[in-house]
From TrEMBL:
Pfam families: Ribosomal_L10. Keywords: Ribonucleoprotein, Ribosomal protein. CDD domains: Ribosomal_L10. InterPro entries: Ribosomal_uL10, Ribosomal_uL10-like_sf, Ribosomal_uL10_bac_type. It comes from Ilyodon furcidens (goldbreast splitfin). The keyword Ribosomal protein applies. This is Large ribosomal subunit protein uL10m. Belongs to the universal ribosomal protein uL10 family. PANTHER family: 39S RIBOSOMAL PROTEIN L10, MITOCHONDRIAL.
Amino acid sequence: MTATLCATLLRNQGWLPLIQSVRHGSKAVTRHKRPLHILKQKLLAVTQYIPPVRPVPPGAYPSKNKHVQEDNGFTLLLKKDLKKVFEECKMIAVVQKNGSSAEEMLVLKHRLFKHGIIVKSFPNQVTRSFLSDSVYCNMAPLFIGPTVLFVSKEPKVKEMLSALKASPQMTLLGGCIDNTLLSAQGIVGYSKLPSVTVIQGELVSGLTMLTSRTASMLQRHPAHLSALLQQYIKQQSLGDGVEAAPKAEEAT
């Protein structure tokens, strides 16, 4: 406040201060980038460096052209035999052989043949190619390594498991029984089920018991009714006899 009054007095007397504070505005930018000439732009566009495309390593992407390999006559014959096995056999078990000798396989085949079980061997490539186009496509992952098939026209699971117990080098992987895909644990559980003959006998005995009980219940009501009627008739006859005796005495 005091400085302002002093400055006003000095200005009135004709005296100006030696230093004056002048407020400057923002400076205008006058250094703009000049546009390039059209010929220079064309020259730069033509001479611009374009890096070469990196080559794709072979096998990094799947090939667009699928090579369909036709099966030869021997492969078609094996597929035909395999199709016949799946159509005629009710039990098809996949077993992996781990270091079993030819003699051990011969003994195992003889044991299984006694129960009507046949050992068949097919190349895994042929088997997977056949299964990929069939309803049994979920069995394809089982065919890895040296595998054989235990097939029979009737499901003889207990006999197969008993024969496999004597051959520890053979490992059960899974199979198809009665058109049902089962794992190794499922096949073991299937073997614990009673046979069809036992189940049929239990069913027949149960039905016979129900029919006999139904017949006895149907016959019970008429027999009970007839017994009640006979008892009622007897009671009526006895009552009539008792009433007739006093009347006879009075008459005499």
